Structures are given as structure tokens and as C-alpha cells.
Amino acid sequence: MSDAEEPTKVAIACQGGGSHTAFTAGVLERMLERWDDERYELVGISGTSGGAFNAVGTWYGLVTGDRNDAIDVLNGLWSDLAAKGVNDRVLNGWLTGYSRLEGAGFPLPMTSPYQVAGDELGKQRIVDALERHIDFDAVPELCGPDCPELVVGTVNVNEGIFETFTNSDVTPKTVLASAAVPNLFEAVKLNGHYHWDGLFSQNPPVDDLLKVPREPKPDELWVIQINPQEYEGEPASLDAIADRRNELSGNISLNQELRSVARINTWIEEGYLPEDQFKYTEIHRIEMGQRYSYSTKLDRRPAFLAELWDLGRSQAEAFLNERQA
């Protein structure tokens, strides 16, 4: 890159997917380790559900310190969320086993999270982990004109609309709402409305990330995608059907938003939209490249999280090498 060239403006969107987003943390860690400020400038980062944890942690570490601080926050968050104690490991095994049996078609009793006392304990653990590593009271002052845009996705249960929270509006409750899976956690009340897991909405937020009110707009969008895009053959067993349904539902909003971006890019190239008002945004996906059962999205075993983390580092390495070439 010559001295006259500006660094490429990059926005990163982190798809949600429970424990599978440990893969995203590995991707972000390797990206941060290899980040070249002369080549790239991070102008925004978004996330949904587990992707929101990674997005907020990365953003906070960067705006309060440097890339190493962001890596430390990511490691701290995932260390706190991993199932380590005896009771936590037993609960983790029960939840993943129950989900596996449910996906296989076994008739199991269903219980509302409003009838289970452990719901509040689970939510409090998430909030404690977030507040241990992120000073949310300081977030409004950190949201200056030169810091990256931060976007967290949820769904407004009462109004039936996708809703995002940006920058100073991001709090522990908004991140918790983004991860509030309906059959596991009670809805989270924000601004007078109840919110559920962002997997039902923009997973991850793309439109709000690209249409930020300030400059510079992103030149490239890097999507860290948890749910496999393609499937070879026909899913025939109940397990396979349940897994593929989950993957497809998790990718619906993402693919719709990316098609909209691609359509605008085409119209810009063909001269239908003025380039001084619309920005061409190059799209890149960093995919997991490996298929795991839906039930493992609840699996917080340290060994499993480490496996996903290492896979993320490997996929990020391949992606960055390809970009550099």
C-alpha cells in the first residue's frame, strides 16, 4: 500500500449461535493479532446473541486500550461463561443431553422458563460476566466520533419488529436480551417492551451496521458466520432435520440482508445509484466450515469451547492469508 492510499474501512458482523460463537471469539482473536492499521480500519462491529458478547467485548477492549486489551476481554468473558464447577458441569450435561433427545424426537416434558427458579440465576451469571470485564457506565463517554460503531440485535416481542441498540444504548440488559432464548430465559424488558433472543431478528445486524449516520462508511463487510450455508445430500433422520432447520432459520435474515447489499452494489456498478450517495460494500464471509449438532450450541464444556476457538483462529488465518494474497 502506498502512502497516498487510505486503509480499507472494515465492518465486522458476528452471527449468533450460543456456545458455537466461541468460534467467533477465535476468529476475532486471530484477526486482532494480525491486524494491520495501515491496511485496515475497523469502523463498526455488530453481533447477535453470543455474537453480541464477542462484539461488545472486542469493541470495549479496543476503545479503552488496544488490540491486546480486546483479546484479554474476550478471553475473560469466555472463561467466565465456561462450565467449570461440578454443579455447572452437571447442568451443562443435562441441558445438552435434553436438547439432543428433543432433536431426536423423544417425547419430553416442556417447562416454561417462568416456572423455573434457575432462570434468574442464569441471567445474573451472564450479567456478572459482562460487568466483570466491561464498565458499561463508561460506554457513553467512549462513544466518540472516531470510535467504531457498535450494534447489538434483539427482537421486540410486543411489536413484532427487529430492534437494534447502538453505541451508548448498549447495556448489560440489551446484551442479555439479545441472548434471551425463549425456552431458556424469560424475556428482557427494555424501554417498556419485552425482548427476546436476536436469533429471531437480524442475525447478525448488517443494515444498521452499514447505514451508520457518520462517516466513513465501510468499504468491506466481514461476516463471521456460525450456521453452515450449504448442506450436501438430504437430511433424513430427525436429528439431521432438526439441525438443518436450525441452520436455515439462523441464516434467513443474514442472507436477506446480504442480498440487499449485493443488489445495491449491482445498481451502483450499473450506474442506477450515484456513488456520492451510496457506498459499494464488498462482502466476505468467514464460515465455520464444520458442522456441529444443534444441541452443542448449549455445550459450555471448556474443551469444546477451546476446540471451537482454535477452529476460529484457523479459519481467520486462512481468510487473512487469502485477503493478503
Automatic annotation (TrEMBL):
Pfam families: Patatin. Keywords: Lipid metabolism. One of its GO terms (biological process) is lipid metabolic process. Residues 13-209 form the PNPLA domain. The keyword Lipid metabolism applies. This is Patatin-like phospholipase family protein. It comes from Haloglomus irregulare. The lineage of its organism: Archaea, Methanobacteriati, Methanobacteriota, Stenosarchaea group, Halobacteria.
